[in-house]
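Sample 1 of the test manifest.
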Amino acid sequence: MLAQQLVNGVLLGATYALFALGFTLMFGVLRVINLTYGFYFTAGAFLSLLLTARFGLSIALALPLAAIGAGVIAVVIDWALLTRLRRKQAPELASLMVTLGGVLALYSAMTAWLGPDIRRLPPGLISADAIVLWGLRVTAAQFLILGATSVLVAALLVLLRGTRLGLALRAMAERPDAAGLMGINTGRAAALVSFMSGTLAGAGGVLIGLNFNAIQPFMGESMMLRGFVVIIVGGLGDVRGALIAGLALGIIEVLTAGYVSSNLKEAVAFMILVAVLWTRPQGLFGRSVVRRA
Amino acid sequence: MTLLTTAMLTRRYTGLVAVDAVDLRVPVGGVHAVIGPNGAGKTTLFNLISGLVVPTSGTISFDGRNITRLPPYRRAALGIGRTFQNIRIFSEMSVLENVLTGLHAKLHVGLAGVACRLPAFHAEERHAVGAARAALSLVGLSDRADRQAQSLAYGDQRRLEIARAMAQSPRLLLLDEPAAGMNPAETAALAALVRRIADGGTTVLLVEHDMGFVMSLCDSITVLNFGRKIFEGAPSAVRAEPAVVEAYLGARLAAKLRANHG
Amino acid sequence: MTIPPWLDDFLWTYGNLINALGVNGLLALSMYVVLSVGQLSLGQAAFMGLGAYSSALMTLQLKLPFFVVLPASCLLPVAFALAIGIPTLRLSGVYLAIATIGLGEVLRAVYLNLDMVGGALGLNGIPEKAQTWMIFSLLIVAVAGLWLVARSRIGRAMEAMREDTTAAAVMGINVGRYQLGALVTSAVLAGIAGCLSAHQSSFIGPNEYGFEPAVTILSFALLGGIGTPIAPVIGAWILTLLPEMLRGFSDLRLVFNGLIIVGAVLFLPRGLIGWRMRRRGA
C-alpha cells in the first residue's frame, strides 16, 4: 500500500515539477515572477481539448501541438505585458503586479467566453488499462505523464547545459546587464524563454487534464499554490531544485491524503512554504536572498 | 583619537574576495580618502561600514563601540552619514523634504503623538525644519528648498544628497565618489564644501578617483588594491610610494617609469 | 427618528451597495497601507476572510456581543500577518507577495473542507449587526488616522522607503519595523472589513476571499493611486459603482479589474488621482 502511494506521489510530483520548471525558468533567466504562467497551463489543456474533440487528433499529436500552441500564446502575451517594463528596468514587483492583473483578465475572459463548466477530454484517448509491476499499479495516463515529463526535463537540461543558447540564458540569469553587452539579444532571448516556459506549462496542462479528467478555465490557479511552494522550496530560479521539490511535494501530498486527511493537502503545502520562509528562505539550491536594508 | 576602526575586515563572495583583511583607522577630524584602481573594493568597504553588506569576518568599531552587527538604521542614529556613488535622492519629494528624511532618526515623537497632533509633535517638526534649512544653507541650496528634487541639476542633486546626510549632524560622513560626473568648476566648489564640513567638526571619509581632488583636500589617504590595503599615509607620501604606482599602472609600466626617472 | 419615505426607499434598494462602498473603502485602505511602504501584499482578501469567519463563529457559536466581536475579528488576521510577515521582512518583496497569494488559496481550500465553517455551503443566518453608520464611521476614522500619519515625519519615512529602501535605511529609518507595522495595520483593517461585511450580508462563503477578490482589492488602490489615503477609497468606489451602472457587463468585471492593474502599472503608475501628500515644508 505504501509503495503504491509513493508511486502515485511521484507521478503527481512529476506534474508539479513540470509546472514549476517553466515558472522557475522565467524567474531565473528574466527575473520575472510571471503569474500569467498559470494561464498557459490552462491554455494547453483547452487547446488539447480542441484538438482532440474537434479535430479528432490522437493524444500523441495533441499533446505536443497543444504545448507548442501554449508556448506561442505565451510569447505574445509576455511580450505585450513585459517588454516595456524590461526596457525600463522596472523592479520585480512591477512585473509581478502586471502579470497578476493580466492573468486575472485572461482567466476571466476565458470564463466569460467559454463558461465555467468542467469539461472532459473525449474518452478513449488513452487506454484505461493499468500495468501491474511488482504489485504496483500504474495507469497508461500516469506512464504518459512520467514519459513526457522525463523527456521535457531532459530536453531542458540538455538545452541549458549543452548548447550555446543555454549558455546565453544562464549568462542572462547571472548578470543581465553584462549579457546585453556581450551581444546577447535580450529581447529575443526573453521571447525564447517565454516560449519554453509556456510550452512546459501547456504540456503540464494537458497531462493534468488527462490525469484528473477535468478541464476548466481557472485550473491554472489551483496549481499556483503548489507552484509557489515548489519554486521557493527548490530555490527561485533553480531547475534541479524545482524537480526535487516538485517530486517531494507530490509524495508528501499523497501521503497526507492517504494517512492523515485529504482535506489538509493544501494546508500541508502552505505550512511547508511558511516553514521554509522561516528557516531557509533560499530553498534547497537558491542563492542567498537575505537583504540587509 | 580614532573615530572609526576596522580590524581584519573581510568580505568574500564565491570566487572573489572583495575586501581582504583591511585594517582601517580614521582619526577624529579632517578629511580622509580611500583610493585605488577600479574593482579595488572601495565601495564594498563603504557598504560594510554603513551596514548594507555583512562582513564575512572582521570587526568594525565606531567611537569605541563595536558596530559590526548593527543594522544600517542604527548606525545612522549613532552618527554615520552617507552618500551614494549613483545619487540616490528621493526624486518625487521636494528638496526640503529630502533633507527632512535625513533627520528621521533624531525625531522621537511616537505614533500616538503624531496621530493626536500633540504640542510635542509640532515643536519637533518646527525644530526639524530649522535643522533642515541649516543643512541646505551649508551646501548652498536654500533658494531651491521647495523645488522637486528631480528637477535639480546633477551637481545640485549631489549637494542635496550631502545636505540630507548632514542634516542630523553626523560625526562621520561617508562620501562615495562625490566628484563623479562633475566639471572642474563644480569639483572646486565641492572641495570647498567638503573643507567647510570638516572644519565644522564632521570627520569626512571619501572614496574618489579624481586624484587632483583627493591630493588637494585630504589629510590622509588609504590605498586599496584587490581588496587589500597596500598603503596608508599623507598625500605626498602616497604619490611616491612604488606599490601605489604599480597598482595603478601595472608592474611593467611602473618599472619603466622608475627606470626613466632613475 | 423618522426618515422621509423616499430616503427609506432609496436605502432599501441601495443599502447593500452603500455598505459595499464602505467595506471596499476599508479594504482599499488596507491595500494602501502596505503599498505606501513599498511592499506588495495580496493577503487583504485572506485577512478579510479570517475576520469574517472568526467573527461569524463568535457571534453564532459563542454568542458574544458585537462590540466584543468587532475588535476580536482582528486577532486571527494579525496572527497570520505576523506568521508570514516576520520571516519575509529580511527577504526580497517578491516572497511576501507570493506567500500572501498562497495564503488566500490555502484558506479557501481549508474553508471548503472544514465542517465547522459550513464547508462549501458557508455560514448562514449571521445577524445583521453592522449598520451603515458603523461602517462609514470606521471608514472615516481610518482615513483620518492614516491621513494624520501620512502628513508627518512617519509619512515622509514611508515615502522614502517606497522610493528607495536602501537610501531610507541609511537615513536612519527602521524599514523592517515600518513594513511589519504596515502589514499588521492592513490585517486589522481587512479583518474589520470582513467582520462588518459578514454581519450585514448574513451569509459568507469560501469563495469570497480567494484570488479574485485579492486582485480586485489591488485594482482599487492602483486605480485611485496611493498619494493620499483618500485616493484608494475613491478608486474602490469607482470600481464598486461601475459594475452596478454597467449592468450588462457583469461577466467582464474581473477582466476589467485585471486590465486596470495592467494599465496602471504600464501607463499610470500614480493612479487616476496622482496627488502627492503635501507636508509641512513642502
